[in-house]
Design goal:
single chain, mainly beta, three-stranded mixed sheet, 7 strands, 0% helix, 29% strand
Length: 130
């Protein structure tokens, strides 16, 4: 099982030429303003953070985030499933800072696991007003 780390920096969704921050982030670096750090563990080459989308999924007026370790090997909720993937929804509270550990249960997150091997759950994630 591998642990993964994903950084979300507020305002980073801009043309790459406007980013003046460091080229690499190290675990020991102090957090940047607006940085939200995701920790978690999924087996396999999970590709966590590909893709990512935001929207108000629970209707509370705050942006929420969905990201997917789409190639994760799922070892819970049934038999092990290679590349079943998962979709992880993190419910926002108006603040973008701190850290979230997806391996810990929390009312601020929901994880949807792929049902079968090769499902690649979360391969595409979108947000919309439905």
């Amino acid at each position: 099982m591998r642990r993964y780390l994903v950084f979300l920096i507020l305002g980073l969704i801009q043309p790459a030429l406007s980013w003046s921050g460091p080229g690499c982030f190290q675990l020991g670096d102090p957090p940047l303003e607006g940085q939200l750090t995701f920790y978690g563990s999924f087996s396999g080459g999970a590709l966590s953070g590909l893709p990512v989308a935001t929207g108000d999924y629970d209707g509370d007026g705050y942006l929420d985030l969905i990201m997917s370790p789409m190639r994760a090997r799922i070892t819970s909720n049934g038999p092990p499933r290679s590349e079943a993937g998962a979709a992880c929804i993190y419910f926002g509270n108006g603040s973008i800072s701190g850290s979230i550990d997806s391996s810990q249960s929390s009312p601020d997150q929901t994880v949807i696991f792929g049902a079968r091997e090769g499902d690649h759950t979360g391969n595409e994630v979108w947000a919309g007003d439905v």
